[in-house]
Hints:
The structure holds two protein chains of two kinds.
Chain A: H1 2-10, E1 15-20, E2 23-29, E3 35-45, H2 51-61, H3 71-80, E4 85-93, E5 96-106, H4 108-111, H5 117-130, E6 134-135, E7 138-139, H6 141-156, H7 162-174, H8 188-192, H9 196-209, E8 212-218, H10 222-233, E9 255-261, E10 266-273, H11 283-293, H12 300-308, E11 312-320, E12 325-332, H13 337-352, H14 358-376, H15 379-392, H16 398-406, H17 410-418, E13 421-430
Parallel strand pairs in A: 2-8, 9-13
Antiparallel strand pairs in A: 1-2, 3-5, 3-8, 4-5, 6-7, 10-12, 10-13, 11-12
Chain B: E1 8-11, E2 17-22, E3 29-35, E4 43-45, E5 51-53, H1 58-66, E6 68-69, E7 72-73, H2 74-78, E8 84-89, E9 94-100, H3 104-116, H4 122-140, H5 143-155, H6 169-172, H7 177-187, E10 193-199, H8 203-213, E11 223-224, E12 237-243, E13 249-256, H9 265-280, H10 285-292, E14 301-307, E15 310-318, H11 322-339, H12 343-358, H13 364-376, H14 381-390, H15 393-403, E16 409-416
Parallel strand pairs in B: 2-10, 12-16
Antiparallel strand pairs in B: 1-2, 3-9, 3-10, 4-5, 4-11, 6-7, 8-9, 13-15, 13-16, 14-15
Amino acid sequence: MCLIEERVTIMSEMIRQEILPGIFLNYLRAERFANNVISIQFACPLQEDRVSSLAVLPHLLRRGNDRFPDLKGVEEALDRLYGARIEPYVRKKGDHQYAGFVCDTVDGGLAGSTDDLTGQLIALASALLTQPLTENGGFCPSYVEEEKVNLCERITARINDKRSYAVRRLNELICEGHPAAIDELGTLEGARALTPQGLYRTLLMLLTECPMELFYCGGAHFADISRHFTDAFSPLRRRPAPLAPCMPLLEAEERTVEERMDVTQGKLAMGFLTGITAADRDYPALMVANALFGAGTTSRLFLKVREELSLCYYASSSVNKVKGLLTVSSGIDPKDFKTAKEEILRQLSEVAASRFTEEELENARLTVRGALEGAEDSPVQLEDFALGQRSSGSEMSLQGLIRAVNAVSAKDAAAALSKATLKTVYFLRGKEENHD
Amino acid sequence: MIDRAVSRRHTLASGLTVCQFTMPGFHQKYAQYTTHFGAVDEVFITEDGVRQVTPAGVAHFLEHKVFEQKEGNALQMFAPLGASPNAFTSQTITAYHFECTDRFYESLELLLTFVNNPYFTEENVKKERGIIGQEIGMVNDNPAWRAYTGLFSVLFPDHRISTSVIGTVESIGRITPDTLRLCHGNFYSPGNMVLTVAGDVDFEKVCRIAEERTPKKGPAVARRSYETGEAFRGGPVRDGMEMAVSQPVYLLGFRDREIPAGCSPRRREAAATLAAELVCGPSSPLFSKLYGENYVTRDFETEYVSFPGGGALVAGGEGRDPERVFDAVLEETKRQLAEGLSEERFTRLARAALGKRLRLLDSPEGLCVAEAEAFFDGESIADTLSHYRTLRLTEVEAFMKEVMRPENAGLYQITPAGGQRA
């Protein structure tokens, strides 16, 4: 354990600073990376009347601005920055929606360039967000129509990957009645109702009122990064509205929902309430308990349910740290529905009743610690972690979390898992099978 | 930091090569032990001259079973060390790897030991058929997988690249412990393998462990035969199937010939990549046009796949009318060749392609996978990067003229079931 402690302290911690009203820069100096990662995100409450606008805006703004009016111009500018990327991202963290760009560029020196590629990339990405191409007080109508079509396709494409589709449906069911149930891409109707003028008004509102989360990880100094972002956003007249952290989900209807689709492998998903979020002191214990139960190759779901009993092709559990949920996702032969479900629940109650070995506990801690330390090597994961902490209202750093995970006892882990109560079972199965 | 792209290499007396990338400051450490044996290697002639025909999917089946040890499953033995082990099988290689932050050397010892000491029994092979049977069901539900295997089956009916990596329920039913021993014995031989590691680790120590934990010698590597007895009648070929998808998922591609001895597969790949960028990459006029008409999305991707006896440039994604994209790519290639390729665009795209390859440097896993693949082609990541620095437009033009022709082209699309959009 001593070794770990020592290494953690040499890592620099993330700095978070409000550089302009409601614009927060999350900065991490890390010279070991060959790439610089930058993110610019609008952070807003998930709301049905606005979700579709936010879902389409990053894609629409990525099409071009007053300087590079078409996709070809933007892509050529990125080619000149040694293949830098500006990727539209739309995410959900509990009851919050994040929309914006995640960008990266290779270290200039490495590519044989003397230019400040990072500074130029920040300028380009910010200009796409703040200086859009407009006509008649709205966005370019053909771009809007095309991006509406793309959004509709992304929504309908949700069914293509049955594994994630089942987990998504489960989440919708368990969070029903709460903002967290809203799909961050919105609905087809919502997408079709978008207009060039309405979208432009939403953008102006976001630029004025919406909290923004900026992120940088790479070798540049804080002062330089802060200056690049300040230059880009200081012309905005900001009157930001505060964004409150999400609350955990504490109640949900108990039910089992079965749906049929053209699949050969059944998908069984199960949703539990734990009441524990990342802001909770029990959260590190829940992470360890989750690893004991269902995350990674030392977990009960993997070793017992998948390997030993061959009841599932895959079976794993995960934690939603913003809403305090525990979710099981598995692929099964539909005839095994009842047996698989019972076995999954049996393993959960075993762990909750402290019936696990010291070795299993240590393996679980290692799994969690390995994942968290792995995240430190991935700027994109660090960015996502920062947003999750923001939405949970947790101020704990990744290193702090690693230390807390090391200290989780058997009693803590069992106690955290014993709070998990099953609320929703979702089963996706083939159309052709017989009902049983 | 540029040195990070150059691996240290050492070949042991047994013939096993060790490659390492040093990554100071990274927590993650990654090691991959790879054999040059994949799905295309079903038919081979052993050292004693016997021609062996093994069932489709044997390399993948073996990958699952190698984890089986006398003492139990090797996957579980990594757990107390805090490492995450896994494996994959491609058309040309089988790789066993782990990732960890602590106790790297112990996990490395375990990796090298278990891969060389599998334990096959009638019973555990029988049980695996059920597990892989499930996996076959799962990949059969995956439209991108079906498009990939579909395209190779229409473009390469004459080559074993057309068979599915995972096999069929019927073919894996014919796999026995003896089949697995035969393949393991012939291909998991030091001279046919490479160990790639990346992270903040000691190279000398890695080599010492490799020396101790791997066989001192192995059989000469079996000769393989890739012909299927079928013939390719020439393109353009169009084929497809129906599935429960919201909109068509497709892959189009061009069949490339075998790269002549002495030529570099990685340079061929660089030329193919630049050709694809010029014709239909994100900054091409065609991409802008197709995107603007909602025929392609930003998920549209291109890739060059090389394998013994051939190669293919493929491109695909999702979109409402794959036929339209297929025709447009053929037309645009013809147009650009007729009007002359732009040196300015080429220079800009080559620079961007180099930058994209340099991203690998932050990924221990990415480095190890790419280095192992390059190694079996007699090259390295450093070679790949230098190809992008020195490639000439004339090479790209030659590739387009020779390969990107209708006679070599194919399209495979997965369309929504019943002609209905979901």
